[in-house]
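Colleagues,

For the teaching module next term, I've prepared a clean inverse folding example: a structure given as tokens, and then the sequence designed for it. I'd like students to try predicting residues themselves before seeing the answer, so please don't circulate the second half yet.
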């Protein structure tokens, strides 16, 4: 089974935005784990999943007012 690593840039800077993002991401059963690097200027979101989910995540974030841009999707 393939594992997908999706790297996205976000605009998440506050606890409230992190909570919204967490709720969005928890709706995807395919996601096994995710992290956001707040030390990075692009607030990089790294998602590990069993399916390619960059578009659905982007759409879910947009629907709740968060921005994310897909940087790259790796398959391992």
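(Answer key — instructors only)
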């Amino acid at each position: 089974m393939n594992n997908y690593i999706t790297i996205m840039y976000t605009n998440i800077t506050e606890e409230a935005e992190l909570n919204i993002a967490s709720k969005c991401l928890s709706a995807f059963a395919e996601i096994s784990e995710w992290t956001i690097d707040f030390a990075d200027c692009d607030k990089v979101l790294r998602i590990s999943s069993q399916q390619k989910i960059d578009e659905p995540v982007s759409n879910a974030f947009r629907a709740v007012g968060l921005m994310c841009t897909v940087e790259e999707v790796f398959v391992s």
